[in-house]
Design brief:
Layout (H helix, E strand, L loop, with lengths): L4 H18 L8 E5 L5 H9 L4 E4 L2 H11 L7 E4 L8 H7 L2 E5 L2 H10 L7 E6 L16 H9 L4 E7 L8 H22 L5 E3 L6 H6 L4 E4 L1 H4 L11
Parallel strand pairs: 1-2, 1-8, 2-3, 3-4, 4-5, 5-6, 6-7
Helix pairs in contact: 4-5, 6-7
Bound molecules: pyridoxal-5'-phosphate (PLP).
Length: 238
Amino acid sequence: MITPLADRLAAVRARVDAAARAAGRDPRSITLLAVSKTFPAADVAALACLGQREFGENYAREGVDKIAALRPDWPGLEWHFIGPLQSNKTREVAAEFDWVHAIDRLKIAQRLSAQRPPQRAPLQVCIQVNVDAEASKSGVAPDDAAALAAAVAELPALRLRGLMCIPAPREGLAAQRGPFARLRELRDAIVRERGLALDTLSMGMSADLEAAILEGATIVRVGTALFGRRAAAAEDGR
Ligand SMILES: *Cc1c(COP(=O)(O)O)cnc(C)c1O
């Protein structure tokens, strides 16, 4: 059965609200980021019609094309680049996006800052932390996150907002909470020790957003639960 987008959006919002209540948090303190990678601009427009404003993209070219296609009718959307970023893609990302979630080295942050158009507001950024220390995953090692955060916070056209992670998949709420708790504790330590104002934890996806919200997520990045399953060939095609 094909669930209409409106039903899926309502269901995901209900999950966010229920998890926020369980955590004793205001649901409005959690931003639902709709991850539209591999889905067409028409699907983004359909969600925008339902009131969704924040969208996440993983691939620079696809994201920039979608932003351009939607800008005439939907100038007020907020675009988050959430994928790994290569040096040769920083210019278009700096020009077109509002947020970048997966900063994992200073060189990329420096390029984004230098290439941010001066007429645009600072680019909002998060540092991706490899919380599970998986060899295959991008992200800075937890021990190196504070130094990178301090360096990124100095860059003039960026505004460092917090940390982001993509833990290895786990079954069950208790197991899922572990890595999210570690990211929150790392954020708290950086705030305490470096005096940085980090208000953002970008963590939680379709399968584990409840665990992330219980541990303090302020942005949950949800693709499959909103748009349906992505075609396997289109996934991780980078
Ligand atoms: C694809 C992706 C998501 C969304 O994942 P779902 O499991 O489909 O909700 C979230 N964050 C990042 C970084 C992604 O690449």
